[in-house]
Amino acid sequence: GQLERLGLSYDWTRQMAAHRPEYYKFDQWFFLKMYEMGLAYKKMTQVNWCEFDQATLSNEQASGGICWRCGSAVTKKNLEQWFFKTTAYADQLLDDMAEIEAGWPANVLKRQRDWIGRSEGAYVDFKVQSSKFQVEEKNIESIRVFTTRIDTIYGVNAVVVAAEHPIVQAHLGELSPAVIAKIKEIKIEKMKPADREAEIEKDGIDTGLMAVNPFSGEELPVWIGNYVMMEYGTGAVMSVPAHDERDFEFAKKFGLNIKQVIVSGQQSVVGDQPELSEAFSDYGSLINSGQWSVKTSEDAKLEMSTFATANGFGEVATTYRLRDWGISRQRFWGSPIPIIYCRSCGVVPEKYENLPVRLPDTAPFTGTGESPLAKVPEFYETVCPNCNEPAKRETDTMDTFVDSSWYYFRYLDPNNAEMPFSPDAAAYWAPVDQYIGGDDHAVMHLIYTRFWTKVMRDIGLVKFNEPAKRLLAQGMVVGETFYNEEGGKRVYYPPSGVMVERDAKGKVVGAKSTDGVSLTWAIERMSKSKGNGVDPDEMIDIYGADASRLFILFAAPIENELVWNESGIEGSVRFLQRVWRIVWKWKERIHGPRSKVQSGESTPEVRKLRQKTHQTIQRITENLEDLQFNTPVAALMELSNAIGDFKVEPDQANEGEVFAVREAIESLVLMLAPFAPHTAEELYEQFAGNGDGMLANGARFPEFDPELIKFDEIEIPVQVNGKLRSRVLASPDATTDQLQELALNDKKIKEYTNGKEIVKVVVVPKRLVSIVVKG
RNA sequence: GCUGGGGUGGCGGAAUUGGUAGACGCCCAGGACUUAAAAUCCUGUGCCUUUAGGGGCGUACGGGUUCGAUUCCCGUCCCCAGUACCA
To answer: Which nucleotides along chain B are within 7 A of a protein C-beta?
Structure first.
């Protein structure tokens, strides 16, 4: 966790997994289970392929057909890839969030909800009329659209499909050259780098094909639109310009007809409506919609989808943004996918007793986009588990997220040779009480591991739905960066060689490199290429491990992003040194076993120090329960200040004073242990009288005594007309009347109340007195 | 644009069932110790004002509710994060 906060972590578990056959044996075990359940399947997909790097790239790495690293062209390649059916669990992933809502950060759940992106609506089929269709007359061809607003279907002016839609492919022969050209243009445009902020202008063309609105019987043109995505829904939409912003924009641009079919509220309107200046996308009541007119949107949606189902041209449908999880990787490391291809038996899963399928020691780059393992005959040449004929292994390996989805369950039963872990061990230990991870895992890792848990539940390994009851997403440590972008490419300058100009308030207004280049200032995740990283070894050399850790915990709440700034770390060093000096100052008097019961005289000073000690124990105990780490450090500092303020020299201290000091120091040292363990252990030797350490000596986190926390006297603020005017001292048990009496007789308060009418006195016991006067 | 989270001193941040705003630390200033420096210790430190006691203002901005608002409500501005022609 600390390394992660320093922005320097790499995932140990995932790296380890790649080198441990006994571990990835069970990745393969799980794969076979999923294959049996129909949750693992293979399909043809397109991947980005960088010729220069000879590697497959993700979408982010290949924005618009250019490799982010080398800048060379990226081509699309067809590859058969393995997938896990995460979409089969989409509803559970959403609905089970109720179980973990209390313990997971809201923004993580929200991001997951968006990522899954459930959308409820209906499919509607629009029959296509074309010359080709008329000739063949075999299968009735239709375009299926997805809509969340079936109630607006009488307002459809066109069916708009993506350029890649199969209907376009099927009718290529009938399309005019202009349409073919436009399709090409749109496809090329989509390949270009996507400017995040820029709004893409609507573009499209009428294909000449016609489709029929199954509700109204209207004949509608089929358009191709650049704003329709093949990847979502069905790749085709019904265009309702009056009630959808995008369709409105599209219709305006191409002069298509805009027909309003929903009006707000319950008005029953006959005839034409005034022309709309923008799309009206709220719910309302239907107009110009045949038998459905006057109904509300809500009712119409239900009834119209039922009607469509009954008449065979549609159905209620839910779509998701979530895709199935592509687990194929063309790498020579990672757990091999245990599948064998046999000429006569086809796709055959490996037998459980043959697991693990082992990786070769090394494999060459293929340069083709295929896995390096495809060049290693010793690896892929095998026999079919079914018919024993020569066969070929799958050469793809699994995504490392597969390992990270369940690694922590292996901790429950690490030596189990038969199964990933025994259900008994899981029943005893799991689910996880507290999971800690970086914010950056919110949607990928944490969705996969939730999915995995549901699969484990369905194969009987566990009995719960969710892997972790509580999640802490700690913030990252980030650093200042300086770069120049003029050459088209970002060039980073190490912060040490940058002159920063700040305004009177200390805000950065500009920066220049030593050779005079003006630079842009930013705060970014640490990385070597940006030169803003912090080397923990260096920090430990200079300040020590304890001070470094203490500072990171103290500087900001754990969930905050922390902008690295070394100026505060000296404070941690000073604090630890101060504690050290306190212990050494008192070490002759605090040696040996301590009794729980106070002995000696109890002066006000002694009581005060003991009170502070026990209050601090209480605060820190509560803070740690809430996973707050910055405020306990502050509390420890306060306690050490209080000990420092106790003005008695060790050689003059009486029994009672020694008791109080010893209790304070020992509590301080014990509570310091989680934050600065090395220092705390060394100091603890002074109490233990041996070097065996806290655990061996049976040390415990201190407990507070509720009796000692009570105050003899508390300060009660007194307000007059809402303004703080005085403070009075009172017993914490003082009654309302006593407090009112005290406040009204206070000298300062009298100055404010003299000659005025007291309208009201509000007394909050133990808290304050508020007086309202008039005149 | 939408969604989520925020806006508190020079800085990181404390404090919220509505009850003394600024804990703790950093920075800065002054002092003690020292031939001197470092280290350490002490004092001060939200802003304005006053000789002083004190007074006024202050939790992004403008309103509201309340004896009392950093906290609750309405509106505005700004920042951060996520996300996107999601039909």
So the answer is: 3-5, 10-15, 19-21, 23-27, 39-42, 55-57, 67-69, 82-87
